[in-house]
Amino acid sequence: MKKLINDPANAVAEMVAGLVAVQPGLTRIAGRNVVLRADLPAPADRKVAIISGGGSGHEPAHAGYVGAGMLTAAVLGDVFTSPSVDAVLEAIQATAGPAGALLIVKNYTGDRLNFGLAAEIARAGGIPVEIVVVGDDAALEGIVAQERRRGIAGTVLVHKVAGAAAEQGRDLAAVAQLAGRAADAVRSMGVALGSCTLPSAKAPSFTLGDEEIEFGLGIHGEMGARRSAMLPASRIVSDMLDRLVEDLGERSREPLALVVNGLGATTQLELMVVASNALDDLSRRGVKVARVWAGNFMTALEMPGCSLSLMPLDDELSDLIDEVTLAPAWPGPGLIDEKPTVAAPTATDDILAGEADGPVSDAVRKAMLAIAEALDAAEQKLTELDSVAGDGDLGASMVRGAVALRGVAAQQFSTPSKALDALALALRREIAGSSGPFYAIALMRVARLLEGEASPSADLWGKALAEAGEAVSATGGAKPGDRTMLDALAGAAEGWRAARAEGRTGLEAFDAAAAGAAGGAEKTAQMTPKLGRASYLGERVLGHPDAGATAVAIWMDALARSLRG
């Protein structure tokens, strides 16, 4: 596993140095991996200090939550390793005044020992200290006793409640009581799609098969409570919420805070899919979500996966959650806003109006369905080719095109022009990127050429092929030889012209056009790209045909075969 570090032994210290350099509200204890608020007043004027921490590798936890309204200090150990007693003690001594300090500790043996002993030493030195232990992991029901549950991402909500209470000037007992209420209330569960690798290690902490996931894991790269086959996001979310809602019992009927937490390698796209599914699922259960956040709160290095946290909110906890904080990693109030969706503009297109079938309607519908089937079958091939020189989305785009084709095939169109106009509309709506617009432009141009023709002649179909290529060239600026879909379209048009020049029939000319498209696509394997994403790679793509040109060859072949039989 490649990582952007220097010496693994110094990675945490360098991370802390970078963090305090880029966050003006943060400072550190010299030579220690302890991050503090930079705006602390004189000791006599300080409010209750809120201190948390643990092993590193969970960023933005814990140092990202240092700031007015959340933590006063974060004590960072090595990756996945509890900080030392002395480091915790120094954090207490550096931040606590007469009001004392509250330590928020995740329920791991190392953290409890080191924070607990530091608290004892501080108390012996005259500093009032209380401890709240967070064990929000609900996945281990029946595996460990409830008091031994691990502390995971729900801990961040405890930070927020305690920090807000301290900022309001409440005394240590009151702050500890509120933090304890939050810790008792919150429940979390995680799922991993893969493992993570420590900076000092050469292999992941565990391995999963390509189609396996791990439910109920912690945040230190350890395995979870059970392994499962890969499931759709909605099923994964539902399985986690089953456990969380069951564990909350009657309290699940109260308004809840929901945290969708990424474990380090999960994209924002995936986290928002999870958030959407979680909100929908909870709504179906009759559970009210009053606050929601989605992002990276407490990660496990580069682990792919997420966790869900639920915390019942009474009025007092809601107010504390809503208090403003200057902690750089806190995302904001998380208020649920009932946003009405904006209705889509009413389509003015009249091209979908049904009319009586024309003489070639059946042939057009049959060809559309044949092309759709061919594009579905070619999804993996097109994805692999597009991944060589592009972003790998062409296979999925062509599958969406196949869906659009089938929708158009179900309509009643009297002429090829009507069908092509309808197809252009469907493709532009279904396929984003460049493929949809290129195909829509070509089809609209051809539809204009064939307008009013119930049964176009062979020569008119040949002209339509050439017109499609010209439309693509004029819009995108490509020319034959640039390694684009135009090379296949140009090959198809040339094959048609040659066949007709030899006196071959229209059906034979379609066969020749399909062969010409295939030949044009194959030639792109030896072309240096001049346009599009592939042009950034230059000669690195040689030996692989262009994905867009290959797609043209695939549907041209399906079209020709459909007309033959």
TrEMBL record:
Molecular function GO labels: ATP binding; glycerone kinase activity
Glycosyltransferase among keywords: no
Organism taxonomic ancestry: Bacteria, Pseudomonadati, Pseudomonadota, Alphaproteobacteria, Hyphomicrobiales
Protein species of origin: Stappia indica
DhaK domain sequence ranges: 7-330
Keywords linked to the UniProt accession: ATP-binding, Kinase, Nucleotide-binding, Transferase
Signal peptide: none
Domain DhaL stretches: 362-561
Protein name: Homodimeric dihydroxyacetone kinase
SMART domains: Dak2
